[in-house]
């Protein structure tokens, strides 16, 4: 597919020929278009992973890429995650830009050594001589009723590792943009995709990154205000941004509270400027993620906000997270995952101080 | 077939009993993807042929009832598998991984096990589970989203399912090391797939099991596919050839021949128990269904392939054999069909009436000794909302404040 095309109801049309506003597309499709654009822009970009070729990935994110770019660039790999990342490192040393797909969050751990001890450190060890522009895509998070190991949130492991960049998209437009930016990054990027949001739709600017004016693009490592508000601040990323937005909606209707919602987007490095700005206005902060709370992203946000905006806080920073248990069986996941009620209870508690 | 090399058989695809020699696999369908190069060194050190194993002797003790029993196992297991697939379609299960086509490999190897042995399954070993006396409902509960395990491995000699591909091969290796140290009379067997054979864990298990001469049978069901990838994407040689590089013996068996699977597994277990170290068995079989109910195999495999493997159906083969031997008449078939229906009906009833787990049970058994982290969260969870607790929410509680919630729509993934 040529870059700059618009997808309408699954059918292709040339951008120039489309008079009406583009139809909304799913996050899965937006990622697919972003990957296409990145592959079209740079012949060194390779896609590799289990079932990414003929099948187009278990979530169809790589659908059609092999037909379009050929088998040498879209590689159905043997079933070995350590090898997927390890060989991507070697390919990157030859000037390629591999985009690795890890089929599910729970299957990234066989590649842990290659990511943490190799991918993250080679630039440092080589005194800057080696660059590893490797993107590792991981569908993450719960909420799809899956069997074990298919619903995890492993982001903290990677954020804790110097040398890695970690981002999470939360909506189709960001997915389309951020995947292209991640691939263009000269540093390794862990790219987290909230799998339960794959089928949520939004209108996406179909222009590839190469054709977007810089002024129109948010940088990869910037957080963003997803909903403006004045009374309290909710911070989420990936799948919980939607949950926070829903909570803000309910709170506005039921409690006449105006909640600001911030989408972190980049988990490492963290861009806390909008969070600090917001907290200085609202004085109240609730951080929401699916991962367990112990030594998590919310712990980092809470610590840094306490350090930098202590006198603005009217209440302690509160957290709504998964519990510190293994991810439970699917029939209990609604109890485990942060939901609107838990978020609003935390907001109530914040106002109780 | 991959390439026509020796494959151990006791029944031809038509159900004829082979009494002495092995056969080349009768010309079958060719799997998708490029063919493996012909195996030049099938007789290389460590690779066993029928000259090394007296296959018929391994099952010489089987009575007529035993033979019918193997057939019954396969029929019931297939029926339960079909029931699970339809329960998934009706929304009672989140997912199902069908074993259709692999009944002979699983029942043959499963019935070779004794009480003293320990089996380590992957996630598709419902037939082995059946042989080990696991309640099929315990397996459905996993796919229903009610549990992550559900049985006591020690009680059944059957470890928990392993969804992380290949991980269980190392557990089996360590378990077998322990068995050898303890002078246990048993051996371990570990199940894994053609796809799993690419994982580092599996190759590390090969090395360790060999070096420590562990009493372990590696039982690889090569069902030709790892989701959408053909076996040729995992290995340029046939999988059983790999063992010789690690220094232990291996063999290849017709995985759709229940008698041959029983015979070779009995032999391999006996070798392992007697201190002969590990054996790799490659059972050549076929995944007749989708990878799971979330998968769509029409995207990657030719329809003719399934038709060709239908002609090698493991149950038809045993039925033909028993019929020809006069061991299976219409009346016995009818009674078996009634039994299968009853099993399926019982499973369906129990599945439908299985209640969701107690919400607070998600905090159970995180650790042997609670560190306080979890118990504090449990207390907050069980406290009523408004009392400072998060409350044991149920789905409908989302509407507690208003009906405005929109974004929490449940989506189903394409496949996993
Ligand atoms: C470590 C790991 N990586 C990826 C997956 C996802 N996955 C589940 S089954 C499967 C294919 C397994 O193929 P094979 O070993 O041949 O077993 P089969 O499904 O054919 O029984 C994959 C890639 C997984 N479960 N674990
Ligand atoms: Mg397989």
CATH class category of the largest domain in chain A: Alpha Beta
**CATH fold assignment of the largest domain in chain A:** Rossmann fold
Quickly count the domains of chain A.
2
The CATH class of the largest domain in chain B: Alpha Beta
CATH fold node name of the largest domain in chain B: Rossmann fold
Per DSSP E runs of 2 or more residues, the count of β-strands of chain A stands at 16
- Our Rg estimate of chain B from Cα atoms comes to 23 Å
Radius of gyration of chain A: 20 Å
Element order, helices and strands of chain B?
A: EEHHHEHHHHEHEEEHEHEHHHH
> What would you call the structural class of chain A?
alpha/beta
Q: Which chains have the largest interface?
A: A-B, 65 and 67 residues
Which architecture of the largest domain in chain B would the CATH scheme give at its second level?
A: 3-Layer(aba) Sandwich
């Amino acid at each position: 597919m040529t870059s700059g095309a618009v997808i309408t109801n699954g059918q292709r049309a040339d951008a120039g020929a489309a008079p009406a506003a583009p139809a909304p597309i799913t996050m899965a499709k937006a990622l697919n278009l972003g990957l296409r654009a990145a592959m079209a822009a740079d012949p060194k970009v390779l896609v590799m992973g289990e079932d990414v070729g003929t099948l187009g990935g278990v979530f169809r994110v790589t659908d059609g890429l092999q037909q379009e770019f050929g088998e040498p660039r879209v590689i159905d790999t043997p079933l070995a995650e350590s090898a997927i990342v390890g060989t991507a490192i070697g390919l990157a040393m030859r000037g390629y830009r591999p985009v690795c797909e890890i089929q599910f969050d729970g299957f990234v751990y066989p590649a842990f050594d290659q990511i943490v001890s190799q991918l993250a450190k080679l630039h440092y060890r080589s005194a800057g001589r080696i660059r590893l522009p490797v993107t590792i895509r991981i569908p993450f998070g719960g909420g799809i009723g899956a069997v074990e190991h298919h619903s995890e949130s492993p982001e903290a492991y990677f954020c804790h590792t110097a040398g890695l960049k970690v981002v999470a998209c939360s909506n189709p437009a960001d997915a389309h943009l951020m995947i292209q930016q991640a691939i263009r990054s000269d540093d390794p990027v862990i790219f987290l995709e909230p799998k339960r949001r794959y089928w949520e739709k939004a209108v996406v600017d179909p222009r590839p990154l190469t054709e977007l004016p810089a002024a129109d693009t948010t940088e990869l490592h910037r957080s963003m205000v997803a909903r403006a508000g004045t009374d309290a601040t909710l911070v989420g990323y990936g799948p919980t941004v939607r949950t926070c937005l829903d909570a803000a909606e309910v709170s506005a209707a039921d409690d006449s509270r105006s909640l600001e919602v911030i989408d972190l987007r980049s988990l490492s490095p963290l861009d806390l400027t909008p969070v600090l700005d917001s907290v200085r206005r609202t004085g109240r902060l609730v951080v929401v993620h699916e991962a367990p709370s112990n030594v998590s992203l919310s712990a980092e946000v809470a610590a840094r906000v306490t350090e930098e905006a202590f006198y603005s806080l009217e209440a302690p920073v509160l957290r709504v997270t998964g519990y510190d248990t293994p991810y439970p069986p699917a029939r209990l996941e609604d109890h485990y995952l942060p939901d609107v009620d838990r978020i609003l209870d935390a907001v109530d508690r914040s106002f109780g101080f | 077939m991959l390439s026509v090399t020796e494959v151990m058989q006791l029944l031809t695809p038509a159900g004829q009993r082979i009494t002495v020699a092995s056969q080349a696999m009768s010309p079958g369908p060719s799997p998708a993807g490029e063919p493996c190069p012909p195996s030049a060194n099938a007789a290389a050190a460590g690779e066993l042929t029928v000259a090394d194993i007296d296959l018929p002797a391994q099952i010489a003790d089987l009575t007529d009832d035993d033979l019918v029993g193997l057939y019954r196992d396969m029929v019931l297991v297939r029926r339960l598998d079909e029931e699970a697939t339809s329960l998934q379609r009706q929304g009672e299960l989140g997912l199902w991984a069908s074993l259709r086509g692999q009944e002979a490999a699983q029942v043959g190897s499963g019935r070779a096990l004794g009480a003293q042995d320990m089996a380590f399954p992957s996630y598709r070993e419902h037939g082995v589970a059946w042989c080990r006396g696991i309640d099929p409902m315990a397996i459905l509960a996993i796919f229903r989203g009610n549990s992550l395990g559900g049985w006591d491995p020690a009680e059944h000699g059957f470890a928990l399912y392993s969804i992380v591909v290949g991980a269980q091969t190392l557990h089996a290796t360590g378990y077998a090391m322990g068995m050898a140290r303890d002078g246990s009379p048993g051996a371990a067997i570990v199940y894994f797939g053609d796809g799993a054979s690419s994982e580092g864990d599996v190759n590390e298990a090969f090395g360790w099991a060999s070096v420590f001469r562990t009493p372990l049978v590696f039982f690889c069901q090569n069902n030709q596919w790892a989701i959408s990838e053909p076996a040729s994407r995992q290995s340029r040689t046939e999988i059983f050839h790999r063992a010789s590089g690690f220094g232990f013996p291996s063999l290849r068996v017709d995985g759709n021949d229940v008698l041959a699977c029983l015979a070779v597994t009995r032999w391999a277990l006996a070798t392992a128990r007697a201190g002969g170290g590990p054996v790799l068995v490659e059972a050549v079989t076929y995944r007749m269904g989708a990878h799971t109910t979330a998968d769509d195999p029409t995207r990657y495999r030719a329809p003719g392939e399934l038709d060709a493997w239908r002609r090698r159906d493991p149950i038809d083969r045993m039925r033909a054999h028993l019929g020809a031997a006069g061991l299976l008449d219409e009346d016995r078939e009818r009674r078996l069909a009634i039994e299968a229906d009853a099993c399926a009906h019982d499973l369906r009833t129990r599945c439908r009436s299985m209640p969701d787990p107690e919400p607070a049970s998600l905090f159970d058994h995180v650790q042997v000794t609670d560190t306080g982290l979890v118990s504090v969260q449990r207390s907050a969870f069980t406290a009523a909302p408004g009392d400072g607790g998060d409350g044991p929410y149920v789905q409908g509680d989302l509407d507690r404040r208003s009906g405005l919630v929109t974004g929490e729509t449940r989506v189903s993934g394409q496949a996993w």
